[in-house]
Structures are given as C-alpha cells and as structure tokens.
Amino acid sequence: MKSAMRDYQSICVFTGSSIRVPEVYQNAARETGALIAQRGKTLVYGGGRVGLMGLCADAALAAGGKVIGVIPAHLQKWEVEHTALTELHIVDSMHNRKRMMVERADAFVVLPGGFGTLDETFETMTWKQVHLHDKPMVIVNINGYWDGLIMLVRQVIETGFAHETHGNLFKVVERVDQIFDALNSAEDPVIGPQFKWM
Questions:
Q1: What is the largest CA-CA distance in the chain?
Q2: Which residues in 106-122 are b (16+ Cβ under 10 Å) and which e?
Q3: What's the CA gap between 23 and 124, in Å, rounded?
Q4: I need a surface site. Which of 9, 35, 94, 130 has the fewest CB within 10 A?
C-alpha cells in the first residue's frame, strides 16, 4: 500500500561520526546535505561536527539550508558538537536524542555509518513496525555498504520473526540522487492481527 503523497519538510540523516572512511562515503554525505538544502528541506541529524555527520551538515549549511542538530550532553562535553547550526538541542540521553530526531523529522535517510547508525536505524524501523510513526526511510547502499544489513532483514522475515510486509519498512537506493524519488514512492507495511510476528 503506497503512502499518500506527503510534503517532507525535514529529513533526518543517520550516518557515521568517523572520517577515517573511504572518500566515496564522504562524498555521499556531502551530496546528501547539499541535496536536502537545494530541495528547500531542513536537515535533522545527530548534532556533531565530526565525521560524515559533520560533512553532511556543513554541505547543507553551505547550500543555504537549515540544519537542526540533537546531541546528548555527554557527547557535547567531548566538544564534538557543531556550533554553527540553525538549531542545536542538548538532551540528556542517547534515547532522547533518537526520540527528538524522530519527532522533528518527516522522513529518514540512512547513509553508511557504524554502530550508532545501526542503532538509530533499527530503533526507527522498530518504532515504525509497531506504529509509533509512519514516516518513510531510505537506505542509501553506496558501493554495497549495506548489503549485509539488507540480507539480515531478509533472513529475519524468511525465518518468521517478521512478516513479509515488514520488508516495506524501508526503501533501498544505490545513489544519493535517488533519495527523493524513493521517499515519494515509499510503501507502508500492511500490519494487522493476521500479520503478527509473535
């Protein structure tokens, strides 16, 4: 079932805080930030100035976009927060960071990242699975980076721990320039008593 066409004003990007990664992933972060700003959308992200997170935010700001950051106080103490954002929110926990990012966003984009990116992605997917939100998610599978994740989700479904319609919790694209087409064609998972995964 396709979602009704929605006007996505704010896009939350999940991506890594490391800069010690191949340039292709750095370029994807820059391209994503610039694309969001060029489309007149607001970038919502984890509030850091480091790694791919920082590159994405800097590119959005350079393109004239609005950027909202959300960072836990314990990370702010490490002086990794971005100080030139449109808004920076300091929260008391990683959980509240994710909660605020979900609340402030109309859609989600997952770029290559590490354990934190996986955490954000799975929690946001789970919240959608149990109808805490109905916002689309696009995974950008640059150079096959997320192949393992996609295979894991398929295994979860094939072995009965999730229903086959839960494969619609996210869309997969291979290039940054495909993000908005994927968001606009996202389908909602069909979830009801007959599709329980328990």
A1: 49
A2: bbbbbbbbeebbeebbe
A3: 27
A4: 130
- The helix or strand, by DSSP H or E, that contains position 23, with its residue range, turns out to be helix 23-38
Phi/psi at 152 (5° precision): -65, -45
52 touches 111 (CB < 8 A): yes
Q: Are 139 and 172 in contact (CB under 8 A)?
A: yes
- Taking the CA atoms of the chain, what radius of gyration do you get in angstroms? 16
Instruction: With cut-offs at 50, 70 and 90, classify the pLDDT of residue 81.
Output: confident
Tokens of 178: 């495909």
Give me the residue label for tokens 């979602």.
3
Q: How confident is the model over 116-149, as pLDDT tens digits?
A: 999 999 999 999 998 899 999 999 999 999 999 9
Which residues face 90 on adjacent strands? Answer: 71
Q: How far apart are CA 127 and CA 15, in angstroms?
A: 19
The helix (H) or strand (E) run that includes residue 96 is: helix 94-104
> DSSP assignment, residue 14?
E
CB atoms within 10 A of CB 54: 21
d(CA 153, CA 86): 36
What are the beta bridge partners of residue 72? Answer: 91
